Amino acid sequence: MCAAAQGQTTKFASNCEHITAQPDAWVAGRVDALVLAARRAYESDRALPAYERTLDGITRTLRECSLTKSAQFTNRFRAFVDYIETASLERQSDHELGLLVSDKQYFDETRRLVEIPAYLLDQTFLKYVSRYETLERAKALLRQLNSKRSLSEQLIFFSYKSRHLGTPDNNNSYRRLLIVVPGDVTKGEPDKWVQFGVPDPGARARVRNVSVVSAMPAGNGVFNAYFKDFFRTYRRDGSIAVEGRWELKEGDDNCAQCHKSGILPIFPARGSVNPADQPTLAAVNERFRSYGSARFGGYLDPAKLGPGLSDSAAASRQRRFGSEFNQSPAGSAMVCSACHNSGRLGALNWPMDRTIIKSYVTGGQMPFGQHLTIFERRELYAKLVDEYFATNNDNPGILKTWLLGK
Fold first, then answer.
1. Pairing of strands 191-198, 175-181
2. Are the C-beta atoms of 4 and 368 separated by less than 8 Å?
3. Torsion over CA: 93, 95, 100, 106 (sign)
4. What is the pTM for the complete model shown?
5. 82: exposed, middle or buried (C-beta count within 10 Å: 0-12, 13-18, 19+)?
6. What digits encode the pLDDT tens for the residues 35-86?
7. For the chain, which residues make up each domain, given as ranges?
């Protein structure tokens, strides 16, 4: 062994010995670094690489110093170890979905649950749904299908414009056609929420994305959610092929980062839903509420990512924002965790999508039933973020408190 390599090995061994001798100090330091990096990454995509390096560094030290093989260490820092192991899954090249199994295994095992029904792959329908100018013809075809289906098999569909999210292939594409395909739990068939991205009027650029989120009731007020993104390929002969985004080797996303509740409720941009379709929109959101609490088929344990926004003790909140804050409109509305917890709609915990959460809070959709001014909503949003990501030692925020096992 050369002198340089030997010196590096000695330094590494010394570092591990130091961590083993003072694990509390090391964990505390890494928790602060992680939470700070996470907040910066939440607030700006440009900070995401720094967060990933911090997470990778913690993961590497846990492995190289064999800390997770120590029962004493893992029992003492269980929340920290579980969190790092779960959050770092998507850092593996074959785990872009952030699940416990590889992306290949997930898609192989869930293929039947997330496949697009054949009648939605009909070439005429695909051509109509791929242009805004022919979207009404696509809906007419769906109405024709419904005329031949029983009441329990009726497709539920409407078009709208998203308030906040573009499609995975086009961040500037907000128009959608959502089709809810009813399942049959007795036959092991889930409800399938099939959503086609639709170009803007007159747009020349194609929108490729088709997403499927399936909901399979599991009893006891819970359901399992399954995900898959597909891309349309527009061929020179005029035909349109639809294949899985992952199969096309065009990457994938951590679905649970946005879909904490499995299925997301639909809050369209104002005026983007035809007045005649308003009852359909209400029926779709009522169906979402009927599913109960989301699980992910055993492919992810979201409880290991800890509590989410607003899940804080009253005393901690008073120390942070003042004794009068709880009586203010923003303070009274900091109730996200009443619904968004592991037993209901899933905790809003990191990693989470800034665009969705900021849009829902400042746009007036959440917290449900709270009537606030835009200034109060902005204050509410800022306080929610600060309370979750705070790193001060005398009154740590929700994420730091959880990671330290407190």
1. antiparallel
2. no
3. negative
4. 0.88
5. middle
6. 999 999 999 999 999 999 999 999 999 999 999 999 999 999 999 999 999 9
7. 3-93, 108-295, 302-403
